[in-house]
């Protein structure tokens, strides 16, 4: 059953994260913690989203999610980033009922199974919420 | 493997028959909350169906019956821990409330310069109330550390004539360590400080006699010892409780009330404002009966055998590191561990898929995790109904974890 949760894509991003490590310069930074498990992630963004860097400590879901976020959102326009961000949040909050669009979410579709595990949705969303705050601090508006 | 009849015990716990994710339930999270035997469930149900009424205020038959059952439960709990009198037993909501009660009541007299001593091994419930107290009063918080072996690093010089309260855990909820508190008690009493023990993990699992422990106050909770949630206990020596001002004000805790002022009832009523958790207290009494009938010595021996078995089983698994004392001596049936390269959340998720229920995370004892350099741990905890087969199931689950994340 956990095959749905631990998709190969997720395990791959966990074991070989993309773009990991905090980099400068950046325009906005946010540090988010999940108080129930202690997972942490710090996300930094440049104002033009030419770089999104991150570092964190946590389970495969939260860390793989940060890696996927980096891959999906780096180099996007704020409007595109907001659209992808919204789609990911919608997928996660959809209790497994939302059909993900691979054209929008790329490797993010692998997280569809996570939505069926309410205890793990927060893990997947942790970097995305940190990204939203970091983007806001960089002067960007990302909804959801 | 033992004279203790686990199969007979298990037959009393209906939940142990259920399946989880297509596998028989393997419940290894009793340090979090225990399951309840039919004997406790029946008492609770029959109370609601037969006797339900408010306590300590009615002259009618149901009220008298309820009061007598409620006070009877107090007497059972008192006898269970060797209290000098049932009046030394205060019913609270849980251990956290019991500790907060003491921090507010006893703590109200503290001033800048006074000191409170706790330890790094505490559950957050025995840290935060004291931090709040020190913020309110200007008193200073100090703490004992933890050794590499997971023992309390008792530096007696921390307890000085400025120390007013020492509050430490009797058995760690994360390392399993059973602390020998005799030196702490002796030193604290030398300087006139009071000693409180968080016995949330010890009272359910070990024979406890408050006179032998030597502490002035202890806290524990019903739901970890086969009772329901919503009921906890503060035990205090009569003279200590007698000197403590009220915590919460309201019905039942008064002697007389005028519009100008109120005088207070003696303990334990002084600390039980409002309608208490009546059915829960009575059910806790039934839980105490159940544990006493089996014998706490026998239960402890059973758990020590399980602990020895678990420590050996885990030691044989590659990549598994156990935290806390390495042998069953001086520790209870709570074993936390790390699986190399795999986050505890992922360990717990894979185990759950196999019906094995463990706790993962910081276990409300974040400083302990920090002390051992990890953000989180996986914890398996045992009780009277746990079997060695279940520990084998845990080991098979860990193999599966390593397969998925290998």
Can you describe this structure?
A 3-stranded antiparallel β-sheet of chain A has the order 1-2-3, covered by helices on one side. Chain A has 144 residues and is of the alpha+beta class. Chain A has 5 helices and 3 strands; from the N terminus they run H-E-E-E-H-H-H-H. In chain A, a hairpin with a 6-residue loop joins strand 2 (40-45) and strand 3. Chain A has one domain (8-137): Sufe protein. Chain: A. The N and C termini of chain A lie far apart (30 Å). Chain A is globular. By secondary structure, chain B is α/β, with parallel strands linked by helices. Chain B folds into 2 domains: 6-30 and 295-405, Aspartate Aminotransferase, domain 1; 40-293, Aspartate Aminotransferase, domain 2 (3-Layer(aba) Sandwich), CATH 3.40.640.10. In chain B, 37% of the residues lie in helices and 18% in strands. Chain B contains 13 helices and 18 strands. In chain B, the strands form 5 sheets. Chain B has an 8-stranded mixed β-sheet with strand order 4-11-10-9-8-5-6-7, with helices on both faces. A 4-stranded antiparallel β-sheet of chain B has the order 14-15-18-17, covered by helices on one side. Chain B has a two-stranded antiparallel sheet with strand order 1-2. In chain B, helix 5 (128-137) links the parallel strand 5 (115-119) and strand 6 (140-146). In chain B, helix 2 packs antiparallel against helix 9, helix 3 (61-80) packs across helix 9 and helix 10 runs parallel beside helix 13. The radius of gyration of chain B is 22 Å and the shape is globular. Chain B starts with 5 loop residues before the first helix and ends with a helix. The model of chain B has no long low-confidence stretch (mean pLDDT 96). The chains are: A alpha+beta (144), B alpha/beta (406).
